[in-house]
Amino acid sequence: MRTFHRLPRILAITVPLAAIVATSACGTSASDEASPASTPVATAAAPVPIDGADGVLSQNRLGIGTAQAAAQAALAKCQADGLGFVTVSVVDRAGNVQVMLRGDNAAQHTVEAARQKAYTAAAFGANTSDLSERAKGDGATVADLPGTLFLAGGVSVKSAGGSIAGIGVGGAPDGMRDQACAAAGLDAIAGALG
Fold first, then answer.
1. In what order do the strands lie in the sheet with 97-102?
2. Euclidean distance between CA atoms 169 and 80, whole angstroms
3. Residue 81, burial from CB neighbour count under 10 angstroms (0-12, 13-18, 19+)
4. pLDDT tens digit string along 131-175?
5. pLDDT tens, residue by residue, 33-72
6. Pairing of strands 162-170, 154-159
7. CA distance 121 to 146
8. 103 vs 68, 76, 78, 83, 117, CA distance in Å?
9. Is the pTM of this model over 0.85?
10. What DSSP assignment string belongs to 91-103?
């Protein structure tokens, strides 16, 4: 019965598309070429640019050992500064958590704050302290994007000129102290980024 309901939608899309392809395959008339208002139609024979030889893109991502080293260095910096109650998150560019370390006595809200700061830094390719000005203003701003947090504490991890990951720290009494810990995580892996 589902197929019965879908059939008209499929035909509504397929039939006009087939008409366009058939029209473009037949060529143009002399009157079409002379008309300045005519719009050219792409032909099926036009080459389509392909990013990879097989149409598949590869994406840079931190290896698990590198992500762990960054998280451990960030937490170690916070512990050395008397801030062991933070959470550190390392995410890939899409915001998928690769490593998360929750310090002793870290409150629950630090878990999500660290992840969101890391994702924001990775997605925007900049440290969250530098992005905070973009989140201000009247009306809607980038701060309204789901899953982002424009507070200091997230650093972007870059390789080959592009953002590939983010390190976020949440829980210190000051966002810049969170960011100092995240920066220590980035410093620990800088040699592995190429």
1. 97-102, 87-92, 162-170, 154-159
2. 15
3. middle
4. 988 888 888 888 888 899 999 999 999 998 899 999 999 999 999
5. 555 555 555 555 555 555 566 788 778 899 999 999 999 9
6. antiparallel
7. 14
8. 14, 10, 9, 9, 17
9. no
10. EETT--EEEEEE-
